[in-house]
Design goal:
The structure holds two protein chains of two kinds. By secondary structure, chain A is α+β, with helices and mostly antiparallel strands. Chain A is built from eight helices and 21 strands. Chain A has two domains: 234 residues, P-loop containing nucleotide triphosphate hydrolases (Rossmann fold), CATH 3.40.50; 120 residues, Nucleic acid-binding proteins (OB fold (Dihydrolipoamide Acetyltransferase, E2P), Beta Barrel). In chain A, the strands form four sheets. Chain A has a six-stranded mixed β-sheet, sandwiched between helices. Chain B is globular. Classes of the chains: A alpha+beta, B mainly alpha.
């Protein structure tokens, strides 16, 4: 059990003129027992950061503190961590039991202690019947469980997960997601979990770190990140389908927003005038579920032309166009729209997100 | 390819049986000759029926040694010399090349690429090419007529290093990282993970290298000047005297049969793993 502090952590590959920065100074505090998800597109540096915490990559500058120790120069085995790899990395020639016991054997624990720990982990993960099998005789989900078992038996201060579910099929992934949640609920071990899947990030994390190009764009609870994305990147990365982002200019009175893209420009009426920012260039964001379709022609805030309707069963995704700007609406399944129809849409004052055009940061 | 064509089956079996006969006939002749008396074995054409001297001939060569051009030691001793050198060469080659491949693949040190290519380039320099300087070195070190002199210069192996390197490169990096997190140091990782994983490769290499060592002729010929350090390959040659005295072909053949047994045995015993090591790419 330990807290983790990342202080201005940087990673640079190469040296001199050819140096490439992949992590640009990340600060984060992870409380003892917390489950933190690092999420971002591929190449954003999330796995590199995790491997730096694990001790598999050197830290170019900054500090990583686990518990009360600075671990920058410690070997992985001295950091009191356990890691679950994307491809499981089980020793192919050892049985499930030996795989879990290997690290303990190296630590020099007694046979009876090793056996007790392995049996307990096997019981938690329901691996009891598989202990004498080798990894190649196991299914993907079972291998994943063994990999977690190998982490549990070490009783580490920190669990590190590197996209552990991405090699599993969709159904198994949902199941394993629940099991990881249960596991964390019972063990209460500080966990760092890397994924590119925003659903995993939303469901698993007590807090999440949204990363992009080596920068932590936002750190917060899933609800916070969803409700108040700090940048347009976070707004478009978290949520499926992503938030609609419209670039345009507020009119002189601040009551309308002029969306211009390509040759077309459309004006939409704001639910609440924003006189303070009159005349400014801005990006307006609205989540698909906050855009309410208006089919009877009554007072709409913007008018749309329906391009495509995707029926997902429980709901409809309506892909529409406002001038040249593409938008998505998420509507209940009983809404009657068809391709080519012109519809209106409205949204509430509280559902508007404003972002700066240049810095793409959230305003207000 | 699964085809059911009886004529094709028959034809391919005929070809196979012919091939086996062609390979085995000389061996059979050698065996027959080794069971006859010296006079019988010198006859032309040779009788293809085994004679009655099997026990006598074999015990003569094994324990007494046959008189040829040079008086050779008993075959049993020469077999021992050959076995010892072949084993030292095979085991030495495997340990050295495994360690150097391990260093080249898993450690980052200055000149890593250079060292690999230097090892690789020595592939172009077989014993025959460097035999004079190597002899000079071995002789200066006083290793003539010793097991070390017979085996050490043949131990370095670019081929085996290269094979191990290629195998290690196919082992996923995560395995090494998992071992690091489990607290295994480099040598422990080599012993507990890489060694068991490369076992089939090791056996295949062992078979090849054992036979390579067993079949050495040129190198022992110049290194072993004392008959007590003759390996079996040289022993056979000394039995075939030129000039006046008659060659006892029955004893020559008996020695040859004995010389063929150990490598044959190694191949037969290890062929299951040997084939697996050459073919199996699954880990």
């Amino acid at each position: 059990m330990a807290a983790i502090h990342l202080k201005q952590v940087r990673k640079t590959y190469g040296a001199g003129a050819k140096a490439v920065d992949v992590i640009h100074g990340i600060d984060a505090e992870i409380a003892d027992g917390e489950f933190i998800v690092m999420v971002g597109p591929s190449g954003c540096g999330k796995s590199t950061l995790l491997r730096m915490v694990a001790g598999l990559e050197e830290i170019s500058s900054g500090q990583i503190v686990i518990g009360d120790r600075v671990v920058n120069d410690l070997e992985p085995k001295e950091r009191d961590i356990a890691m679950v790899f994307q491809n499981y990395a089980l020793y192919p020639h050892m049985t499930v039991y030996q795989n879990m016991a290997y690290g303990l054997k190296i630590q020099g624990l007694s046979k009876s202690e090793i056996d007790a720990r392995v049996q307990r982990a096997a019981a938690i993960l329901e691996l009891g019947a598989l202990l004498e099998r080798t990894p190649r005789q196991l299914s993907g989900g079972q291998r994943q469980r063994v990999a977690m078992g190998r982490a549990i038996v070490r009783k580490p201060a920190v669990f590190l997960f590197d996209e552990p579910l991405s090699n599993l099929d969709a159904k198994l992934r949902v199941q394993m997601r629940l099991e990881i949640q249960k596991l964390h609920a019972s063990l209460r071990t500080t966990s760092l979990y890397v994924t590119h899947d925003q659903v995993e990030a939303m469901t698993l994390g007590q807090r999440m770190i949204v990363m992009n190009r080596g920068v932590a764009e936002q750190i917060g609870t899933p609800a916070e990140v969803y409700a108040r994305p700090a940048t347009t990147f976070v707004a478009s990365f978290i949520g499926s389908p992503p938030m609609n982002l419209l670039q345009g200019k507020l009119t002189g009175d601040g009551a309308s927003f002029e969306v211009s893209k390509g040759n077309a420009s459309e004006t939409l009426r704001l639910p609440q005038p924003l006189a303070a920012a009159a005349g400014q260039e801005r990006i307006l964001g609205v989540r698909p579920e906050h855009l309410l379709p208006i089919l009877d022609g009554s007072a709409a805030q913007l008018s749309l032309e329906v391009e495509l309707v995707e029926a997902l069963g429980a709901e409809l995704l309506v892909h529409a166009r406002c001038g040249e700007q593409a938008l998505v609406l998420r509507c209940p399944a009983n809404v009657q729209v068809r391709t080519g129809q012109r519809i209106g849409a409205s949204f509430g004052a509280g559902d508007v997100h404003w972002f700066d055009v240049k810095s793409t940061k959230r305003l207000g | 390819m699964i085809e059911r064509r009886p004529i094709l089956d028959f034809l391919s079996h005929v070809v196979l049986v012919l091939g086996v006969l062609i390979v085995f006939f000389p061996l059979y002749v050698a065996f027959v000759a080794s069971t006859q008396t010296a006079e019988q074995s010198a006859l032309s054409p040779l009788s293809l029926a085994p004679g009655g001297e099997f026990v006598n001939n074999y015990s003569t060569v094994l324990f007494k040694g046959a008189a040829g051009q040079v008086t050779a030691p008993p075959v049993l001793h020469m077999l021992w010399v050959s076995l010892a050198t072949a084993l030292i060469i095979a085991i030495g080659k495997i340990s050295i090349s495994m360690l150097s491949a391990f260093a080249i693949v898993y450690f980052r040190f200055p000149g890593r690429g250079l060292f690999f290519w230097m090892i690789f380039v020595t592939l172009m320099l077989p014993v025959e090419v460097r035999i004079t300087p190597t002899y000079q070195v071995v002789s200066d070190l006083g290793m003539l007529n010793s097991y070390a002199g017979l085996s050490v210069p043949l131990i370095a192996s670019a081929t085996a290093t290269f094979l191990f390197r290629q195998f290690f490169l196919t082992v996923p990096d995560e395995l090494a990282e998992a071992a690091r997190i489990d607290g295994a140091g480099p040598l422990r990782f080599l012993k507990d993970v890489l060694w068991p994983l490369s076992r089939t490769n090791v056996i295949a290499l062992f078979v090849i290298m054992f036979i390579y060592g067993w079949n050495q002729y040129l190198w022992p010929l110049i290194i072993a000047t004392d008959t007590s350090m003759y390996p079996i390959g040289i022993g056979i040659k000394t039995l075939i005297s030129g000039g006046d005295s008659a060659v006892e072909w029955n004893l020559v053949m008996a020695t040859m049969i004995l010389a063929m047994l150990p490598p044959g045995l190694v191949v037969v015993v290890m062929q299951k793993w040997f084939v697996k090591g050459l073919v199996d790419s699954e880990k």
